[in-house]
């Protein structure tokens, strides 16, 4: 399965929920409540992680939680460019999570590019963000903190 991934509600904006969604043939979305993001970012701050590193770690962990349940069917991932200049770090963190679970890298890789407003992933992320659709799963602080610790 070739998929595109998009985000609605930036992970660093702790006043709003964040939704990550993928689509292309199949679709799925996760919701990270604002309160969960605050807990996780504060835990990383206490560990003296720089602000940008906290955000990248949290975003990468959320990506993994979005993709992991269906990973065995994914052969290419296109991630919307959300954090320009940090793509290599996001990819490296995602790959570390995959390797830790013994999951293979996708045959055609992990890439970053602008997805666009017409993307099914964008439409799903936005509809869940606006509470017009339900997420497939709500993520907890415990889940994220296990991955970013």
Brief characterization of the structure:
The chain is of the alpha/beta class and about 150 residues long. About 40% of the residues lie in helices and about 20% in strands. It has 5 helices and 6 strands, in the order βββααβαβαβα.
Query: Could you tell me the number of beta strands?
Result: 6
Q: Give the radius of gyration.
A: 14 Å
CATH class label: Alpha Beta
Shape: globular
What is the end-to-end distance? 30 Å
Tell me roughly what share of residues is in helical segments.
Answer: 40-55%
Strand line-up of the largest beta sheet: 5-4-1-2-3-6
CATH architectural designation: 2-Layer Sandwich
Query: Which structural class best describes the helix and strand composition?
Result: alpha/beta
- Helices and strands, in order, run as EEEHHEHEHEH
Give the tally of structural domains: 1
* Proportion of beta-strand residues: 15-25%
Q: Please report the number of helical segments.
A: 5
CATH topology: Nucleotidyltransferase, domain 5
Biggest beta sheet attributes = 6 strands, mixed
Mean pLDDT: 92
Low-confidence stretches: none
